[in-house]
Specification:
Distance between the termini: 59 Å
Largest sheet: 2 strands, antiparallel
Radius of gyration: 19 Å
Strand content: under 5%
Order of helices and strands: HHHHEEHHH
Number of helices: 7
Number of strands: 2
């Protein structure tokens, strides 16, 4: 049974993560957005530490909150002048963005709860308790190459991030 302090800490960190995530998306200053993303990543690390996964928490702090954020800030400063004024979006673009993001969220939530996650069990089955997934199963899914395993998409995303950073450096050197 969790203590009352752990439960309160969970909700405080969840609120901090929600607020900083919203601020990262909402702000017009790109460096502030990167800073808010850093705080959101650090809050995720606190969740890992609270769950007792010290290694994952340390990796979250070292790799994501440390290394990736340094690369993001480096790429931002190479490609963008912090003193530039940002143009406001007109209402047509804002409406299209809101509608498309709501539709995307609905599709993603439907897929999250209905598609099989591990061992043919969906997330809704795991929540109901009719299927059991262990941490070992999750680890094998992240590092495997078989059906419903995610090593290839993870590597594709890392190559995509590397290409974005190289592209940012190339664009910055042309100016």
């Amino acid at each position: 049974m969790d203590s009352v302090g752990n439960i309160i800490l969970y909700f405080v960190i969840a609120a901090v993560m929600i607020v900083f995530s919203f601020m990262a998306v909402r702000t017009r200053k790109i460096l502030r957005s990167a800073t808010y993303l850093l705080f959101s990543l650090l809050a995720t690390a606190v969740f890992y530490f609270q769950l007792g996964y010290q290694f994952l928490g340390a990796v979250q702090v070292a790799v994501y909150a440390g290394g990736i954020m340094v690369l993001f800030v480096f790429a931002i400063l190479l490609t963008h002048r912090p003193d530039e004024k940002e143009r406001r979006l007109d209402s047509h673009r804002k409406a299209v963005g809101i509608i498309s993001s709501v539709c995307g969220a609905i599709v993603l939530l439907y897929a999250l709860f209905t598609m099989p996650v591990l061992n043919g069990a969906s997330l809704s089955e795991c929540i109901n308790g009719s299927a059991m997934i262990t941490m070992s199963d999750i680890g094998k899914a992240f590092t495997g190459t078989a059906k419903f395993q995610y090593l290839l998409p993870f590597e594709a995303v890392s190559v995509l991030l590397l290409a974005c950073i190289i592209g940012g450096v190339v664009v910055a050197r042309k100016n």
